[in-house]
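Quick start: what a row looks like.
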Amino acid sequence: MGAARRQLMDPALQEGLLSPPALAVLGLCIGSFLNVVIHRLPLMLERGWKIDSAEMLGLDPAKTPGIGAPLTLAKPRSRCPSCGHAIAWHENIPLVGYLRLGGKCSACKTRISPRYPIIELGTALLFAAIGWRFGAQPTALLWCGFVAVLIALTGIDWDTTLLPDDLTLPLLWAGLVAAALGWTLPLSQALWGAVAGYLSLWSVYWAFKLATGKEGMGHGDFKLLAALGAWLGWQMILPIVLGASVLGAIVGLAMKASGALREGRYVPFGPFLAGSGVVVLFAGSARVLGWLGWA
């Protein structure tokens, strides 16, 4: 290396590869993978828990009923849940495959959930927006990864009320490492953001439990907010929680009024934390603080 640092790639090439349209195409592909993560990761975790339980009881997992066949994010191939039809590669092209099939399985004509193309399209739009927000810089890919994990956590928490450590903890550590390398925030802001994020909801959890004897939220919410603090800074913790609370209340009341929320059930908080974090990301800390009159 000489005195002057060499660029990693040609500026024109970088401008093209990290432009909003290029990131949108990348987002379509990543969104397709996120659909797999949202569906399979909880099943993989559940299978792992069953194996651990069987081993603790001195049982042979291979002979224990209910554990099921091995499952990874790559194997076995995706199949129609209704008829077992193996999905061909051309049927699995993000968004295009769904539109070509008319939203139905090619074999049994069972309707495919519209959530699959919605997640693909939503990921594409968010990636393109990141390209517009941050420009054709390598850090745009970093923020794309941040948003992709939030989308996966949103889908999993909505389906299962679970925020897996397999996603929240890597997101937390990635935020701290990115700050340490000078890619996002000053490290002190990221570190105290993680601390403030975790302790704030941890305190609410214990205050609510001591007052009512019930658990008001899961521990995964603490870790998710800690991760958001590591990426966005300690000053954004309160705005994120306030925004998530408002969004959660509106959606919960709407679901209650429409009958979509059954008695005794609750709306998971993770999706609203993630959504509020994305709003803060695009708005920027200065603008958010200005909205609250703290600037």
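That is the whole record. The two ends are 42 Å apart (CA to CA). Confidence is low (pLDDT under 50) at residues 1-6.
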